[in-house]
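dude i think i finally got it to work??
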Amino acid sequence: MYTLDWALIWRSLPDLAQGALTTLVLTTTSIGLGLVLGTVVGLMRLSRMPVAGAFAGGYVWFFRGTPLLVQIMLIYYALPHLGLSLDRWQAGVTALSLNSAAYIAEIVRAGVQSIDAGQTEAAWALGLTRFQTVRFVILPQAFRRIVPPLGNEFILLLKDSSLVSVIALEELLRRGQLIVTRTFKPIEIYAIVALFYLIQTTLISWLVAYTERQLRIQARPQTPRAGRAGVAAPPGELV
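look at this
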């Protein structure tokens, strides 16, 4: 019967915790950059300019149609032959950001298209420009609707970040692999690695659920407060 090496688990926890922190920072940085780029690409997909729409469509087609692992290899190993060398961290963030942006672009596009056209017409009637309409009317409403899929993308990207271990970036999985190489104890180490991933994805799920609740509360119409006799107070009257 196999006996777990609890001493090894205890000794490995600080190193794996550091790897988990690296994974979280890597993922957060990539999802932030991917959100900015993905929003731009998503809006370009809706643009009336054929060139912008074609570029955005090609971008999404390529990064959604090829494996993330291949994209990492291209960025880290192929770009130096074209005169652009990136270190492991830069290559990892670049690959994850570009890949995430392609998926976020489709999320943003669907969110914007879900907003009633009357919102745009009303904004134009008030004298807002096209940019102001998108910035102050469309995107805030769309954001409430795309929070759940954005949360899913965050979780998927955190798990996919383990692929950067192929370029020896010492995130959570890579640190686990190095410990297993030294100790030949894969059961203990990979079980703790899986536990760290599970904790992180669970925390992200809770954060997304909390954000959804807060956005629903903010979106609720405010009802007038009742006066002393249970009747709505007139405007300007203290109750």
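The radius of gyration is 24 Å.
im so relieved honestly
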